[in-house]
Amino acid sequence: MSWLDSLTLASRSLRRRPGRALLTILAVTLGATLLVALASVATSAGSRIVSKLTNGGPATAIKVSASKADSDQAYTDDLRAAGPRAITDATLNAARQSSHVATVIPVIASRILAVPPPFGSAATPISEVSAFGDTMVGVDLTQVRNLPITILAGRVPHPGSLTEVAITESYLDRSGMSLASALGTQVEIAEPQAFQSQGGLQFRARWIRAEIVGVVSQQVGSGAFLVPIEQAQLAQTWALSGVDGGDAFPLPASKYSGLIVVASSLDDVHAVRQMITGLGYANTAPEHLVASVLRYLRVVDIVLAGIGAIALGIAGLGVANALVAAVRERRREIGVLKAIGARDRDILRWFLLEAFTVGLVGGVIGTLAGLLIALWVGVSVNTYLTEQGLQSIQFGDVSWPLIGAAILGTSLLAIAAGVVPALQAARLSPTEAVAAA
Amino acid sequence: MRLIGSRLAQARDVAHGHKVARLGSAIHLRGVNHWYRSGRSRVEALHEVELEIQAGGYIALTGPSGAGKSTLLSLIGGLERPQSGTLTVGQHDLRAMRADELATYRRTTIGFIFQHFGLLDLLSARENIELAASLSASSKRRPQARELLEEVGLLDRAEHRPGQLSGGERQRVAIARALVNDPSLILADEPTGNLDADSAMRVLDLLERVHSERGCTLLVVTHNEAVAQRAEQRYRLDAGRLLA
């Protein structure tokens, strides 16, 4: 008997008892719905919690400071700095050579003077100008996914752009702008250079005017401006071509003000931190906190998976029960098929395909329903969070592995549930089956 | 009806003139015993049955209910093995064959026809025949099915489900299905038992035509003496014992 014949028999057998088929599919659907909804919500919530802990960056990111590490650095998540220590290209290369490291992202921070609008003739009189001193943090923005940066509005500047900046909420507070009104406006930035004149130490500036393209929350470095690293490098070169500006604008002592080192996996974070500490640099990562939270999330996952498994188990029993009844009903047909030469495996395939069809249809419908429920939960939660004045959580990410696993899982479960009745059918004696007519 | 009648007459002429295409399977039973377990007791279905059927023969097997007719048919058809004695059909020693070999034997050698037709309600008349053909991995299942439906005069009913056919039509579809793998032995268990007299005669005519045209051995189990009278040889079973 061909696969197509078996499939025809299986599908028509289901259509012959539409009520029973519908109830069995419904049981599988409910199981799949519950499992997918729970898994989807748990995965979204888990990843958001970890993301929150790591300020939007990967849980494996380690922030390295241009400071010496003290003796306890390896045993705490916090930064334990003990005096300055320059980060050079040699430091970068040493970090990159570790097999536990996925990537190393240098950070350059420059002191600047920021002048919010209005500019030109509409500018505020100098006595009332709201200019303020701050820091511009430059990073390789092609690696934004690996950085502890959360975009609150807009976007980050294009990599390499010298005319775009992203700001933090600190800029909003100091400029008196709202988040919505700041986007698209311009800011003037003075990159200072100290020089000695006959009158003593004086300062001049390299002025740039940049568009604010986004508002971010960032933990890359302390500063109100996030810019492409090229912009920060220009400011650093400009400053270094002058003299030391004292406490107000000191010359950069380190080529890089920090590093973001991303470990290959959570299991590698500790080894990487030890390596960095071994190089003599203070560093910080929520290593112990994330590990602890992940353990709790794992427990939640197990509990939710258990609930889903119970639902699917019940669905499996439903499939098995329906097939047992089908075998009882079809004894004559099975006998006839065997009498005309069908082999045991032909009968087995007929019933297993019937179980598979139930599992597949139930799995597809259940998975879609589960995703919709997860989406609905996300909308409800976000509505509540917004009402409470809290930042919303992004739910409803379509996880293709989850969808694939759910559909494949329910199909395989249905097949597993159908094995015993299908074997019963396959092993029916043809004489016994014919006698049942 | 007229067509079948004329073809039947022609077929008889052919058979009597010994001009059949090939001979069916010869059947030999020696000291065959078979019994069933019913709780702790043993029910004897067949006792020391000795039977010789020539290849291409047309045999009727009669007897009261419970005499062992269907059991004998099951044994010859390879649905089960005799518990003692020897049973050969053609070159096949049925007692020595494994389950999968018996399935192949049933598929390639036997054409079963049941009192209750044994058609799958899920499939149309054509699909029932094609399914039997596909068991032998036939690559020409569709033309074969059409040809056979034409042969039994039901081409116009090809897409009808068994429930939409009369009893006689269903039995003719069952005969077409039995023939699809070109069996050398046709086993018919009360083929007219559920049919009115007219349909029964048409079915018998068809079976006899098939027997004579194809040269296959035809073994009919029946309660009906009129049906049995049409066979070339008649045997009677009573309480598991074969009477000539």
Describe this protein with a few key phrases:
heterodimer, A: 437 residues, B: 244 residues, alpha/beta, 4-stranded antiparallel beta sheet, disordered N terminus
Please give a quick description of this structure.
The complex is a heterodimer of chains A (437) and B (244). Chain A has 437 residues and is α+β, with helices and mostly antiparallel strands.
Question: How would you describe the overall organization of this protein?
Answer:
- Chain A has helices spanning 3-16, 18-53, 89-96, 169-175, 179-182, 229-240, 266-279, 287-329, 331-339, 344-387, 400-426, 430-435, and strands spanning 61-69, 81-84, 101-115, 132-139, 149-154, 164-167, 186-197, 200-218, 225-228, 258-263, 281-284.
- The longest helix of chain A is centred in the last third of the chain and has 44 residues, at 344-387.
- Chain A is α+β, with helices and mostly antiparallel strands and 437 residues long.
- In chain A, a hairpin with a 2-residue loop joins strand 7 (186-197) and strand 8 (200-218).
- In chain A, helix 2 packs across helix 10 (344-387) and helix 10 runs antiparallel to helix 11.
- Helix content of chain A is 51%, strand content 21%.
- Chain A has a six-stranded mixed beta barrel with strand order 3-4-9-6-8-7.
- With 244 residues, chain B is α/β, with parallel strands linked by helices.
- In chain B, 38% of the residues lie in helices and 25% in strands.
- Chain B contains eight helices and ten strands.
- In chain B, helix 4 (125-135) crosses helix 5 (141-151).
- The longest helix of chain B is centred in the last third of the chain and has 18 residues, at 197-214.
- Chain B is globular and about 50 Å long.
- Chain B starts with a helix and ends with a strand.
- The A-B interface holds A 1-2, 5, 8-9, 12-13, 16, 332-333, 336-344, 346, 429-431, 434-435, 437 and B 70, 74, 77, 79-80, 99-100, 103-104, 106-108, 110, 112, 114-116, 118-123, 127, 130-132, 134-137, 177-178, 181.
